[in-house]
Design brief:
The protein has about 450 residues and is mainly alpha-helical. The chain has a single domain, classed as Amino acid/polyamine transporter I (Up-down Bundle), CATH 1.20.1740. Helices cover about 75% and strands about 0% of the residues. It is built from 17 helices and no strands. Helix 1 packs across helix 8 and helix 3 crosses helix 4. The chain is globular and about 60 Å long. The N terminus is likely disordered. The structure holds phenylalanine. Phenylalanine binds next to helix 1, helix 2, helix 10 and helix 14.
Length: about 450
């Protein structure tokens, strides 16, 4: 399909380009770094099952709502709500999204920088000489406490995201994802085979796939729901913005299903890489946020071809982080292009540099600023907490309420069914978006307060 000539914002070149770019946003540190460690902390198989229910009952309907709002208005989150409900408080959802993009990318850039650092460190072999996971953990702790190194790698990560976004949706984001996403999938398959053939790997498969329902508590359900949200890039207009570059010929429902399936498949695949390896090594699955950065290098150290495996893994993690980082940056950039009238170049350079600067204190939170705390939280924790635990759930819930009750299911359905696309499960979607989704997300949100 040729690129539709529309306005200076640009359009996706093909349906697959869009699906891959949106999957690139969804698949990121959330899948590769966060999903395995919280699955490990929350009992394995049972958590995975609840997570899957959350993805399909809550995440999928909200994603379709965001794509629909985006394509209907062809605008950034602020412009979209303004176009549909001018001069109302609903526009606040859009502003919240732009702010969330700013905040999330500021610390996401720091963790993205860690992944780049570990590619380099794998080459120099310094992460491949560990006798135990404890040594690897210490090495990681020392690395993230080094201000110069952390900030340089954060700058490198931000620079890569900016270089891609500056080329625009078709030239930059889409082309990058078209190559990167399939590569990611293949690399994961190779790693999975490597992991599954380690002696003792089956214990890990059992932990990961056989649910122990005694482990399910209300707090486990809440964690699963929150993770579904973060992993699918919902609640801040990232998917709305990507949908705004869709032409009317595309089928929104099938694009939604593809993106949700790809994101879920990658998360599940990453689990099949990590847990067999963790159990084969006699390691602890509930290790926590350091799982990827401190346990896996120890795993690689004891493997044949460890250097190669380590480089492949961290390249993979960096790819996943960059394709998510560019979607976060694109939300803020699209706002300045559409609403403020900046050129893409000016928007990317200005916004990118400010987000980088805002991220520096987050990067220093594990070293020189580790004692600078407010209510017992470091700068990194505060920014992460405000954005991920407050802005995303609130944004998602309000988007669902807006589409379900204010803009209306009928208008949304009209947009979805443009060009005679049939929306077979329209009634189910209407029910989910009006009742199930707002109530479920409100539940997560309130749980943060009580
Ligand atoms: N979904 C991304 C991940 O899993 C993170 C993200 C959240 C990206 C919100 C954009 C918007 O890493």
């Amino acid at each position: 399909m040729s690129t539709p000539t529309n306005n200076k914002r640009g359009f996706w070149g093909s349906r697959m380009g869009f699906v891959l770019a949106a999957s690139g946003s969804a698949i990121g540190l959330g899948n590769v770094w966060k999903f395995p460690y919280i699955t490990g902390q929350n009992g394995g198989g049972a958590f995975v099952l609840i997570y899957l229910v959350c993805i399909f009952a809550v995440g999928l309907p909200i994603m379709l709502a965001e794509f629909t709002l985006g394509r209907k208005t062809n605008l950034n989150p602020v412009g979209a709500f303004k176009a549909l409900q001018p001069n109302t408080a609903w526009v606040g959802i859009g502003y919240m999204g732009v702010v969330a993009g700013f905040l999330i990318l500021s610390f996401y850039g720091v963790v993205g920088g860690w992944t780049l650092a570990y590619i380099v460190k794998s080459f120099s072999q310094s992460v491949l000489e560990f006798q135990s996971p404890k040594d690897a953990g210490q090495f990681f702790g020392q690395f993230i406490a080094n201000p110069t190194e952390v900030v340089i790698y954060q700058a490198l990560f931000m620079g890569l995201c900016m270089a891609i976004v500056i080329r625009g949706v078709h030239g930059g984001i889409e082309r990058a994802c078209q190559v990167l996403m399939p590569t990611l999938f293949v690399i994961l398959l190779i790693l999975m085979v490597r992991s599954l053939t380690l002696p003792g790997a089956m214990e890990g498969v059992k932990f990961y796939l056989s649910p122990d329902f005694s482990k399910i508590t209300p707090s486990v359900i809440l964690i699963a729901l929150g993770q579904a949200f973060f992993s699918l890039s919902l609640g801040m207009g990232a998917m709305l913005t990507y949908g705004s570059y869709l032409s009317e010929k595309e089928n929104l429902t099938s694009a939604t299903v593809y993106v949700v399936l790809f994101d879920t498949m990658i998360a599940l695949l990453v689990g099949m890489v990590i847990f067999p390896a963790v159990f084969a090594m006699g390691l602890e699955p509930a290790e926590g946020p350091s799982l990827v950065f401190s346990v896996l290098p120890a795993v690689f150290s004891s493997m044949p071809f460890g250097t190669v495996v380590s480089i492949i893994f961290f390249v993979l993690l960096a790819i996943a982080a960059i394709t998510s980082g560019i979607s976060l940056l694109e939300v803020v950039v699209a706002y300045f292009i559409d609403q403020v009238g900046w050129t893409r170049k000016k928007a990317v350079l200005t916004v990118g540099l400010i987000i980088f600067a805002l991220g520096i204190p987050s990067g220093l939170s594990f070293g020189v600023m580790s004692d600078v705390k407010f209510m017992d939280k470091t700068f990194f924790d505060i920014v992460d907490n405000i954005a991920s635990n407050y802005l995303l759930p609130l944004g998602g819930m309000l988007t669902a309420i807006f589409v379900g009750w204010k803009w209306g299911i009928a208008k949304a359905r009209e947009e979805i069914e443009k060009h005679e696309t049939r929306f077979h499960w329209a009634n189910l979607w209407g029910f989910l978006i009006r009742y199930v989704t707002p109530v479920a997300v409100a539940f997560v949100f309130l749980a943060k307060f009580f």
